[in-house]
């Protein structure tokens, strides 16, 4: 299932990120802020349970999150969304997945993975700004499932139709959230109009 989170603040910040004249500092800041805005919608259906507390005035049955939340950034670019999400879910744990796309084959190559202990029982939120062919996201979901994850959401900023279709076909049980659905991929597998290479723009590596 695909949800495109359409909000004036997200459109405004994403346009700053798309602008080729935006530098590393503003690119990172806006990515972080959009991550925080998106997570409000992404977590709308997280399960809660009743909890008995006392207010200063009376007993009260409130609510707390029923399950742990694990944020799973796809390195490198996904790291740019973690702190904005952690601002809203400060108790979240982080699972790191390192992979890069081979520039010729466009296939993802995995170089790192590390999971928190409670990963299988947690609500897992995979984050990566870019969903291009979908190969990296599909591989990350495969890895999360292989480590026992039962409930997975995928949060990307910009997606290409090719990537959305591929993820929906490979993992129909995973809810996919985007801030924008773009037009297409170019012959090098980059999203058009997109925002360029997210990892390089976050970390200043080009
Ligand atoms: O949908 P796909 O076709 O798999 O492409 C998207 C992937 O490519 C980018 O990562 P990249 O390989 O540039 O690594 P980086 O984050 O280290 O820059 C991006 O952050 C995604 O992970
Ligand atoms: O447009 C794209 C495609 C893949 N990875 C990026 O960072 N940008
Ligand atoms: Mg990159």
TrEMBL record:
What InterPro entries does the database record attribute to this sequence? PRTase-like, PRTase_dom, Upp_B, UPRT, UPRTase/APRTase
Q: Which Gene Ontology terms cover its molecular function?
A: GTP binding; magnesium ion binding; uracil phosphoribosyltransferase activity
Residue ranges of the Phosphoribosyltransferase domain? 4-205
Leader sequence range is none
Positions of uracil binding = 191, 196-198
Q: Which Gene3D superfamilies match?
A: 3.40.50.2020
Q: How is its activity regulated?
A: Allosterically activated by GTP.
Give, as in the UniProt entry, the pathway in which the protein acts: Pyrimidine metabolism; UMP biosynthesis via salvage pathway; UMP from uracil: step 1/1
Catalytic activity as recorded in UniProt: UMP + diphosphate = 5-phospho-alpha-D-ribose 1-diphosphate + uracil
An example GO BP is: UMP salvage
Which enzyme class, named as a word? transferase
Q: State the needed cofactors, names only.
A: Mg(2+)
What keywords appear on the UniProt entry? Allosteric enzyme, Glycosyltransferase, GTP-binding, Magnesium, Nucleotide-binding, Transferase
GO CC annotations, alphabetized = cytoplasm
Q: Would the keyword Nucleotide-binding turn up in this protein's UniProt record?
A: yes
Record HAMAP family: Upp_B
Which family does the record claim for this protein? Belongs to the UPRTase family.
Its recorded name reads: Uracil phosphoribosyltransferase
Q: Whose protein is this, by species?
A: Absicoccus porci
- Taxonomic lineage of this organism? Bacteria, Bacillati, Bacillota, Erysipelotrichia, Erysipelotrichales
Question: Which gene carries the instructions for this protein?
Answer: upp
């Amino acid at each position: 299932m695909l949800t495109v989170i359409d909000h004036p603040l997200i459109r405004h910040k994403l346009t700053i990120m798309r602008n080729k004249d935006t530098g590393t500092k503003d690119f990172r800041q806006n990515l972080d802020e959009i991550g925080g805005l998106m997570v409000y919608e992404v977590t709308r259906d997280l399960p809660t349970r009743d909890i008995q507390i006392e207010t200063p005035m009376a007993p009260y049955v409130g609510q707390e999150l029923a399950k742990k939340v694990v944020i799973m950034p796809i390195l490198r670019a996904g790291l740019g969304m973690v702190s904005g999400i952690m601002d809203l879910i400060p108790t979240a744990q982080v699972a790191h997945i390192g992979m890069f796309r081979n520039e010729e084959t466009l296939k993802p190559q995995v170089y790192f993975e590390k999971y928190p202990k409670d990963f299988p029982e947690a609500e897992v939120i995979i984050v990566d700004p870019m969903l291009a062919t979908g190969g990296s996201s599909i591989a990350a979901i495969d890895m999360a499932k292989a480590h026992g994850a039962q409930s997975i959401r995928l949060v990307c900023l910009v997606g290409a139709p090719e990537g959305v279709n591929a993820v929906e076909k490979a993992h129909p049980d995973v809810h996919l959230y985007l801030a924008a659905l773009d037009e297409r991929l170019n012959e090098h597998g980059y999203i058009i109009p997109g925002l360029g290479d997210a990892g390089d723009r976050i970390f200043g590596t080009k």
